[in-house]
Amino acid sequence: MDDIAIKVEGVGKTFKLPHEKQTSLKGAFINLFKGGNRSFERQHALKDITFDVKKGEFFGIVGRNGSGKSTMLKLLAGIYAPTKGTIAVNGKLTPFIELGVGFSPELSGRDNVFLNGSLLGFNRKEMEGMYQDIVDFAELERFMDQKLKNYSSGMQVRLAFSIAIRARSDILLLDEVLAVGDADFQRKCLRYFTYLKNNKKTVVFVSHDMESIRKYCDRVILIEDGNIKLEGIPRKVITEFMSGFVEHNEENSPNVEKNGVAASNLPLGIAEAVTTDKTLLKIDRVWLENLEGQKIDEIDKNTNEYYVKFIIEAKKDIQKVVPGVIVTNELGDFVVAVNSKWAGSSLKTTLTDKNKYLIKFKLLNIYEQGNYKISVNVVSEDFNTFYAWKNEVCSLYVNRPYVTGGKVNPPSTVEITEL
Predict the structure, then answer these.
(1) I want to staple 117 with a disulfide (CB 3.0 to 4.6 A). Which of 5, 95, 127, 356 is the partner?
(2) What is 279-297 written as a DSSP string?
(3) What does CATH list as the number for 4-20+39-244?
(4) What superfamily in CATH does domain 263-399 come from?
(5) DSSP result, 46-79
């Protein structure tokens, strides 16, 4: 096990959830005499989990809320004991879970820095040496003499995170640390991740931020319903996770009526469509191609253009249709939204009953690195009626090594002229 930092074998975790909730001392006392009559429900948070984390590896865990991700981290941290199976940790481990445990709300931020530092094994002199760095990282200089109970929850977590990263450890467990703080603080967290990765620290990282998972992790597992559904490189696992997430949302979205149409069936981004008429045409196949006519699901920096193609079939004669394409990133943001009318296309817009038509959009590769979803639709010329749509029907991975931080990465040139 010399090259293994964490080894998890056949681990399961079951919680007993009582059906009767006790809210008084009297109720608890009465229950002492009920013996085996008190009923419980067993929740199998994790069922049969097996994986290992190599030393120096940045290891990701993804999954929907309630899938068992955080339970797995708490098992690794020793907060929970497994119901079955074994966990072996080779090295000193620091969990970034429930940051701020050990803080005293009646003490000032300054006093809590020294208190929390002592819990991490630092003496006062060591804490004095790193105090200013902690405060600067947390961006809380003006608040350090205030009592902690007056801090917002975000301020408390920022302070706790700033202290925790000073810990001397071989293995770090990170649980959604990017969920706190503003954009500037999150950038500091990302720089810290880069430091960890460059210095070959062993990290287990749970997050819903797929771009961070893709950027930092060497290997990822997808947990679903308490089991590992998939393990592999980030791109492969993220694609599976996002695909399942879309299907889950479509199946479980509220069935709110909008103009007689269930909201879960409305096209992406159109929760207030004026009217819908799905009797006139339907969309058949949708796919992506390169300029050589090969089907693709990935492009790189050398691919300047690509096609989005789909086939529509008219159910009746229909005039002046406008097909469109929407490209969204992993957060659901619209990155590209185009249609034939905006493009000034001379597309044939009158369709004949029972005929099929091929729609072809040529798009520029202006994307940042990451995973994207392609949606297509056909609307009326005034955009007030939707005839057909397919939400997030194709996936596209863009492999571009230099990430600028923007939503798109268009070609650009620069000149410097002496005046």
Answers:
(1) 127
(2) TSEEEEEEEEE-TTS-B-S
(3) 3.40.50.300
(4) abc- transporter (atp binding component) like domain (2.70.50.60)
(5) EEEEEEEEETT-EEEEE--TTSSHHHHHHHHHTS
